[in-house]
Specification:
By secondary structure, this protein is of the alpha+beta class. The protein is built from 9 helices and 16 strands. Strand 7 and strand 8 form a beta hairpin.
Length: about 325
């Protein structure tokens, strides 16, 4: 029997209602977009309207970055293969994606769209594609076929098409944070379905508590709690979206650009703590595909980026400096 697990937020924000000795009311607005639940929490009644505007601000990006909305900016590029004067945020996100494609030697590949469309794990009745279809789609996947030029131009060669689903939420979270700060919000939390971005501290000056969900737990049980201030926490996990085939094999949504199949690196969860959410988005997906040894080597080479990795037997590994966030 096929089964599709409903979307469950990978990270849970543990908000205290009392805020210590300094009691400040909070306002949370939420919606469903980008195929996930989105919430923005700000402190102070005067910021409630700003939070609602920030939610609307974030929603506008779905019409730019979505690969499935026919009239979106990205969909047009995927159809036409050539474009100039594209939206500056789309250009910037693709540029960032290409940087991490190269940094991770293709473990992250934003040209993976032929494979994600083929597998279509978010559909109501996902199934395993044939080996021939996977091979055909895989032949179109190579981020080096994406070229950016002057005047915000882009060219897709050799049948390439782009999927930004693995990195767009982080970029949008960063933009929402910028919007909130520019409008006077000094404390708050943005949660884009597993991408948690903290603004400042709690009103009493204490750190935010961010719980990392225990993989495959039947409830909202957490395996670790992080203490962070003014940082991003992003988790990618094989247990977020998956289906079970007729033969009992489980297929998850994080595809390996080298094989065309769901990643089998031995890792089931990667959490990245960083200053920018888009960094965490790119690296959490790439590191899960890379596997433990290569992922730790990469993370240890980067400044102000920390990783917490969980393997199939629930062993937890930390990159250098990551344990400082666990108290």
């Amino acid at each position: 029997m096929k089964h599709r697990k409903k979307l469950i937020l990978l990270i849970f924000v543990l908000l205290c209602t009392g805020c210590g000795s300094k009691s400040v009311s909070s306002c949370t607005v939420s919606d469903f977009m980008f195929n996930t639940y989105v919430s923005i929490t700000v402190y102070g009644e005067e910021n409630a309207d700003i939070a609602r505007k920030a939610l609307d601000f974030g929603r506008e990006y779905e019409q730019i970055f979505s690969r499935t909305i026919p009239g979106s900016d990205l969909s047009v590029i995927n159809r036409e293969k050539e474009a100039s004067g594209i939206h500056p945020d789309l250009y910037s996100l693709i540029q960032t994606g290409l940087y991490y494609c190269k940094l991770t030697d293709g473990s992250l590949d934003i040209s993976i769209e032929p494979l994600t469309s083929l597998w279509d794990i978010l559909s109501e009745s996902p199934s395993v594609p044939s080996a021939g279809d996977i091979a055909d789609a895989l032949s179109l996947v190579d981020y080096k076929n994406i070229s950016l030029g002057a005047d915000n131009s882009i060219s897709l060669k050799n049948g390439a098409s782009i999927d930004l689903g693995a990195i767009a939420k982080g970029y949008i979270a960063d933009k929402i944070r910028q919007f909130l700060i520019e409008n006077g919000v000094s404390d708050g939390i943005i949660n884009l379905g597993g991408n948690v971005l903290c603004i400042g501290n709690k009103p009493d000056g204490s750190e935010y508590l961010i719980g990392i969900r225990k993989p495959f737990a039947q409830s909202s049980a957490t395996i670790l709690t992080l203490h962070v201030s003014d940082l991003s926490v992003v988790t990618s996990g094989t247990y977020e979206r998956y289906f079970t085939a007729d033969d009992g094999t489980v297929y998850h949504h994080i595809l390996d650009p080298a094989t065309g199949y769901p990643s089998e690196s031995g890792l089931i969860s990667v959490t990245i703590i960083s200053e920018e959410s888009v960094t965490g988005d790119c690296l959490s997906t790439a590191c899960l595909v890379m596997g433990l040894t290569d992922a730790l080597e990469l993370l240890n080479s980067l400044d102000n980026v920390y990783g917490i990795l969980i393997d199939e037997t629930m062993n937890i590994y930390y990159s250098e400096g990551a344990e400082q966030f666990i108290q």
